[in-house]
Design goal:
Blueprint (H helix, E strand, L loop, with lengths): L1 E12 L14 E12 L2 E8 L2 E2 L6 E7 L2 E3 L2 E3 L2 E11 L4 E15 L10 E13 L2 E12 L13 E5 L5 E11 L8 E10 L6 E11 L4
Antiparallel strand pairs: 1-11, 2-3, 2-4, 2-15, 5-8, 6-7, 7-9, 8-9, 9-10, 10-11, 12-13, 13-14, 14-15
Amino acid sequence: MRRSLVAGAVVALTFAAAAPALAANPPGTASSASADFAKGSQTFRVEPLAVCDVNPDAAGTVTGSSPAVSRTGLKIGETSSACTTEVVNPDELLTRTKSVAKGTGFELSALTAAKGPRLRIAEWTITCDADDRGTRAGWELKGMSGWTGLPEQIPSGYVHDVKASNGTVLARAKFTDTVFPEPNDGSLAMTLLRITFEPASGYTGSITVGSTACSPTP
């Protein structure tokens, strides 16, 4: 299955009467990808790529970037991020933030040895926008291949079984896993995609593609 574009968004509204003094999530953060998986005694780790954090006390943009990385069975192209604070009303001290991470050239070939698919994503983007009313996370996936059976519209929290040619489940891929704190403070955290290996694959561990979090501005 090849997809040119899949996208979506979720919203968290803040409720002033219920919001705690400190939000459960950071003001804004984003990362393009990370990985921690193993096969037997071999461990393959990719520290979070292209990380940025919002500076809530000063207007401007904090950026992050990482070069392409390659591990046995996994390739990730160049990645980048930007976390921005903007003053929208200086008289009322109102600000808004935007945290965005982007990546290119994801390819997971680790499952092919177990007769599984080669999973590819040409480009991805994840964002978290915040103002004094709440937060909104958005995402895009472009140029997907190898994802047989994926629905046309991917609902939030959807779990896709990655199978071998004989139907054995080799990994599970969870899309747009969004966490809202309780009690609700208007903040949210989202992981665009997390691939967790099943025993039949011969691997343990997981791979994350795109993560972000943000909280309402003061």
